[in-house]
Amino acid sequence: MKVALGQFAVAADWHTNQAACLKLIARAKSGGADLLVLPEGILARDINDPEIMPKTAQPLDGPFMAGLCAASEGITVMGCVNVPDGDGRFYNTLVVLRDGNIIARYRKIHLYDAFGARESDRTAPGHSLPPVIEIGGLKVGVMTCYDVRFPEVARALAAAGAEVIAIPAAWIRGPGKEHHWRVLNTARALDNTCYVVAVGECGVRNCGASMVVDPLGVVTLDLGEAPALGFCDLDPARIAHARKVLPVIENRRFANPILRSA
C-alpha cells in the first residue's frame, strides 16, 4: 500500500484549508497513493482565538466535507474535523473518505487535558473505540493525536486485526514534546508490530514532524516541521517478518482491552 502524508499549517478560514486539502488530494492521487492522511483540526485553527473551533464547526454534510468527499474518487482520505455536538461544544471527529463517501468516522475519546491545556472545555468526548478499515489490501486502524499516549487503544486495534495505525494529530510544541511524539509513535509500532503513519499539523503552535514508523520501530519517513507531502510504501512482507521474529501479539498474556462506555 502506498500512503501519502499531507502536512500543512491550518489557517483560520475553512475555505483556505479546504483548498489546501484539495491540492494535497490531487497531488496524492498523481503520486499513486492509496491513502492520504491529513492532520487533526483541518477545518480551522487560530492560536489567538480559542473559540475558533466551536465557532467554525460544521456538520459532516456541510460544505467543507462536501468538497473533500467530491475529491476522494479513487483514493482514501482521512483527517479530523470539528462537528457540532448540539450542546455548544463539538466532537473532534476523524473521518475516512473514499469515492465520494464517508466510509468511517471516529470521535476522539482521549481529550488533551494535559500540559496546561483543556481540550475538554470545548470538546465533547467520544465513547467508542476507533474502527479498522481495509485500504489497499491492508487493515488500517485509526487514532487521534493524544490517543497515542494510551497503548490500550493501539493494542485494541491490533487485536482487531490492524496492520497499520494512522494518527492524524496537531502535536503542540514544547520542552520534550517533539521527543515524546517520536518515542510514542515508535513505541506503538513496536508494541503491535504494525506500521504507524502519524501526520501532524505544522505552523506556529504545532510541530509537524509527520512520520512513518515500520513494524520494527524504524522511522522510514520524517517530514520535519515545514509544510510537505511525503510518500511511503507499506510492505505486508515487513509486517509478516516483524510478527514472526517479534511475536508480541501472540505472546501476550492479557485479554483484549475493552473500552468502557462513559
Automatic annotation (TrEMBL):
Domain of life: Bacteria
CDD domains listed in its UniProt record: nitrilase_3 (cd07581)
Pfam families named among the record's database cross-references: CN_hydrolase (PF00795)
Ranges for domain CN hydrolase: 1-236
Family annotation (InterPro entries): C-N_Hydrolase (IPR003010), C-N_Hydrolase_sf (IPR036526), De_GSH_amidase (IPR047999), UPF0012_CS (IPR001110)
SUPFAM superfamilies to which the protein is assigned, alphabetical: Carbon-nitrogen hydrolase
PROSITE patterns: CN_HYDROLASE (PS50263), UPF0012 (PS01227)
Record-linked PANTHER family: DEAMINATED GLUTATHIONE AMIDASE (PTHR23088:SF27), NITRILASE-RELATED (PTHR23088)
Protein family per UniProt: Belongs to the carbon-nitrogen hydrolase superfamily. NIT1/NIT2 family.
Stated name of the protein: Deaminated glutathione amidase
